[in-house]
């Protein structure tokens, strides 16, 4: 993190590569979820506020990266939308039933799910994969995913303005939010699974 910050501080104000790095980091997060895309985004926002990086270009790079990454994950899911293209462990009766249920939920509530994707850390790419498997039209994925990214990055810029030159404060705010968001997502998922199991037992 310190090395990345040092590089940005030395090059951000006068190098187009800084924006390319931000775009790539935002993209990779959707292809490889463990990648700390938000950490790089925070650096970009922090330096746009304090070190002379262009705010509009930083915002644009983060949003374009998120959209390309999200659509890449969507394309992956779209490829496996047909059962015969899935690996054998996803063609079992139970797996097929689960996938069909998820497809139905996303087909029905896709707009809300994709609008929320950017606000749920670590799960973003899976929403787009699910949208692909549910055959949600690509233009809807781009629209709702794009709006979600724009809102999230606007919030990051707002927090960056509040934090000023205090990067640690900015990181703390985002980390606390991420923890709460993940906990709420896990709780909602657990409630859904329990209700689903109870329904099956009742049947």
Map the helices and strands.
Elements (H helix, E strand, L loop, with lengths): L1 H10 L5 H15 L5 H14 L4 H25 L13 H24 L7 H10 L4 H26 L3 H36 L1
Question: How many structural domains are formed by the residues?
Answer: 1
Could you describe the largest sheet, including whether it forms a barrel? none
Distance separating the two termini: 53 Å
What share of the residues does DSSP label as strand, in percent? under 5%
Helix content: over 70%
How would you explain this protein's 3D organization?
This protein is 79% helix and 0% strand. With 203 residues, it is mainly α. It has one domain (2-202). The chain is elongated and about 60 Å long.
Summarize this structure briefly.
The protein has helices at 2-11, 17-31, 37-50, 55-79, 93-116, 124-133, 138-163, 167-202. It is mostly helical. The longest helix has 36 residues, at 167-202.
């Amino acid at each position: 993190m310190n090395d990345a910050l040092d590089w940005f501080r030395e090059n951000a104000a006068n190098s187009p590569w800084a924006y390319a790095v931000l775009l790539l980091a935002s993209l990779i997060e959707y292809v490889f979820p463990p990648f700390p895309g938000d950490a790089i985004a925070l650096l970009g926002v922090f330096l746009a506020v304090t070190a002379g990086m262009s705010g509009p270009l930083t915002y644009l790079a983060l949003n374009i990266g998120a959209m390309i990454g999200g659509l890449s994950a969507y394309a992956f899911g779209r490829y496996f939308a047909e059962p015969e293209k899935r690996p054998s462990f996803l063609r079992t009766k139970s797996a097929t039933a689960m996938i069909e249920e998820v497809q139905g939920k996303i087909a029905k509530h896709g707009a809300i799910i994709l609008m929320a994707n950017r606000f749920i850390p670590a799960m973003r790419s899976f929403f787009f994969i699910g949208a692909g498997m549910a055959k949600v039209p690509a233009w809807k994925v781009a629209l709702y995913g794009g709006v979600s990214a724009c809102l999230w990055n606007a919030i990051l810029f707002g927090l960056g303005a509040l934090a000023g030159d205090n990067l640690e404060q900015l990181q703390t705010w985002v980390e606390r939010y991420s923890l709460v968001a993940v906990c709420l997502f896990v709780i909602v998922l657990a409630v859904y699974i329990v209700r689903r199991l109870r329904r099956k037992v009742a049947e």
